[in-house]
Design a protein that fits this description.
12 helices; seven-stranded mixed β-sheet; binds pyridoxal-5'-phosphate; three-stranded antiparallel β-sheet
Length: 362
């Protein structure tokens, strides 16, 4: 057995769509990208979608579009992928780290409120592992303090809360990296319902141009190619079915895994299980369990083994006096197992057998 933690599914439809773009000769950003944007926006009930070359670019562009920069503080969780924080630094702004809810692993609104200062400009929760963060709490906080609400939705394609998709609350950044719920190889998308933000984002991703060779703002080359968009359109056709398969795999694990703390889904949320993340029982040796099942061919991984602020770059920048207890406990106690839609029934059973057995040893 060899079961990967992630498994991009690239079928004939994707291959044919890319060939069509190649044959057309129009391979850079163009009409296929526009169609992908339109369909992605439609799927998520958003007014505007802006395609970019990856999820990190999406985050940076979103911050730039909201004029976040030097002197501004942006509140983010300490428990996420590094890009959640590095994009804040890229704009010259200061990341302010907050703790998580120990049951959902999403940023804690109480923790976020406790670090608001007069310099706070924005709050950016992450929809970690594919579950929407507590957006009504963040919406209220932003309203009360006059803050911008952003969403790191890199792991939350098709996820909902109260029937609303990511991008319904703030400017939301998605990723189409190969391990994400749908992929374009590399790629990203920003959703917004704000016309002005949409216009600015379109300039930022294309050299700051509003019309050809007329540069209104400083922008970059963050364009998403027709080739990538052709893949994205076909992936989007499968997004709901793949999401359903992830949810079915998760339900199987919920029922069959013993003793591990399985993911908590907040009532009213549809968790899309970008990752299915377990917490080991009190006193169990997480690393030993991981090692045992990895030796048996199961691609288990820790997302994330260290808080972002513990990374060398942040330690050097003076973040060495922070301690967020639930973030640090999660880093030591959690791990993720394969939940992707390519998983077979046999593989699922194998994973559960080995996981339950590994607990006896650890
Ligand atoms: C993947 C990811 C990103 C970055 O997306 P890329 O496409 O890899 O640049 C940002 N934030 C989170 C939470 C992610 O999972």
């Amino acid at each position: 057995m060899k079961i990967n933690i992630a498994q991009p599914i690239i079928g004939e439809a994707e291959q044919e769509a890319v060939m069509e773009v190649l044959k057309s000769g129009y391979i850079v950003q163009g009409p296929v990208t526009a169609e992908f944007e339109e369909r992605f926006a439609e799927f998520h009930g958003a007014k505007h979608a802006i395609g970019v070359n990856n999820g990190t670019s999406a985050l940076i562009a979103a911050m730039m579009a909201h004029d976040i920069g030097v002197g501004d503080e942006v509140i983010i969780p300490g428990f996420s992928f590094f890009a959640t924080a590095s994009c804040v630094l890229s704009t010259g702004a200061t990341p302010v780290f907050t703790d998580i809810d120990p049951e959902t692993y999403n940023m804690s609104p109480e923790s976020a409120e406790s670090v608001i200062t007069e310099n706070t400009k924005a709050i950016m929760p992450v929809h970690l592992y594919g579950q929407i963060a507590d957006m009504s709490a963040y919406e209220a906080l932003c309203e009360k303090h006059g803050l911008i609400l952003l969403e790191d939705a890199a792991q939350a394609h098709a996820a909902t809360s109260g029937g609303k998709f990511a991008g319904s609350w703030g400017t939301a950044s998605f990723s189409f990296y190969a391990t994400k719920n749908i992929t374009t190889g590399e790629g990203g998308m920003i959703l917004t319902n704000d016309d002005a933000v949409n216009e600015k984002l379109r300039m930022i991703r294309n050299q700051g141009m509003s019309t050809q060779y007329y540069h209104e703002v400083v922008g970059y080359n963050l364009r998403l190619t027709n080739m990538a968009s052709a893949i994205g359109l076909k992936q989007l056709d499968s997004l709901q079915a793949w999401t359903d398969a992830r949810i079915a795999n998760a339900a199987y694990y919920d029922e069959t895994l013993r003793e591990y703390t399985t993911p908590k889904v907040v009532p009213g949320n549809v968790h899309v299980y970008h990752q299915y993340t377990l917490r080991v029982p009190q006193g169990a040796n997480r690393d030993k369990i991981m090692e045992t099942i990895q030796e048996q061919g199961i691609g288990a991984r820790v997302y994330y083994p260290a808080p972002i602020y513990a990374q060398p770059i942040f330690q050097k920048m003076g973040y060495d006096n922070i301690s967020l207890p639930e973030t640090e406990r999660a880093c030591a106690e959690i791990f993720s197992i394969p939940v992707h839609p390519a998983l077979t029934d046999e593989e699922r059973e194998y994973i559960v057998d080995k996981l339950n057995a590994a607990l006896e040893l650890a």
